[in-house]
Design a protein that fits this description.
It is found in: Nucleus. By secondary structure, this protein is α+β, with helices and mostly antiparallel strands. Helices cover 21% and strands 24% of the residues.
């Protein structure tokens, strides 16, 4: 820390540092120390959110830059939480990260506590097959901040599986999940989905981070002869 040229001090003399200056210097020293010992790419608690700030998944704190996060990792709160987690895992008999189990099997890492960043943007377009005249929908979901290596997943659930609304047998839900976004659900008519080739499909555009889902409902005649309405899969007839 430079103690020269402070107000009220002679040239070459060391003035009294203010509290803010002392804290700033301490954080800088901690940051330099952490850079020598910590690789952020391998830190399981380091997370950059969608607004550009950094979060500690262990302590649930938010930091404006990586230097602030690194200084935080050297602080008492982070070190205490690390010790508590290690003690808890040892008590429960869980292997630490990188620890090997008897027989040469490597221990499974503790499930990550993913910080959700909200719902994805989406577009919905009504469709009608030009040949069969079946009605359907085309979903386009935007996942600009999707986690690396994650591919969105989709499934259908009945109205009686969900706990958000009063169950209504006339509706079903299409659920789409992709970390770190919140899982979103779309309320559909309780009509059977046509799962034959080319009728129902999904595609994830990795370059543009867009997930596409197309579904077509079976016609009334097909539903009448194929059983009760719902989301049960139905293959092509031979």
């Amino acid at each position: 820390m430079d103690y020269q040229n402070r107000a009220g001090s002679k040239f070459g003399g060391g003035g009294v540092a203010s509290k803010s200056a002392t804290n700033l210097d301490r954080r800088e020293r901690l940051r330099r120390l952490a850079l020598e010992t910590i690789d952020l790419d391998k830190d399981p608690y380091f997370f950059k959110n969608h607004v550009g700030t950094f979060e500690c998944r262990l302590c649930l704190t938010v930091h404006q830059n990586d230097g602030s996060y690194l200084a935080h990792t050297q602080g008492r709160k982070h070190q205490t939480n690390l010790a508590r987690r290690a003690a808890k895992e040892e008590k429960e008999g869980k292997p630490r990260d990188g620890q090997f189990m008897p027989g040469g099997q490597q221990g499974v890492q503790v499930k990550r506590n993913v910080v959700k960043i909200g719902r994805p943007g989406y577009n919905i377009t009504k469709r009608r097959d030009p040949l069969t005249r079946q009605l359907g929908l085309l979903f386009q979901l935007h996942y600009e901040e999707i986690a690396e290596g994650v591919v969105p997943r989709v499934r259908f659930m009945s109205a009686f599986e969900q706990k958000v609304e009063e169950p209504d047998k006339n509706f079903q839900y299409m659920v789409v999940a992709a970390e770190p976004y919140n899982t979103c659900a779309f309320k559909l008519q309780a009509r059977e989905i046509d799962r034959r080739d080319g009728r129902f499909w999904t595609w994830y555009d990795e370059d543009n981070k867009v997930f596409w889902v197309q579904l077509l409902f079976k016609s009334e005649g097909e539903e009448r002869y194929s059983g009760a309405p719902g989301s049960a899969p139905s293959g092509p007839k031979h």
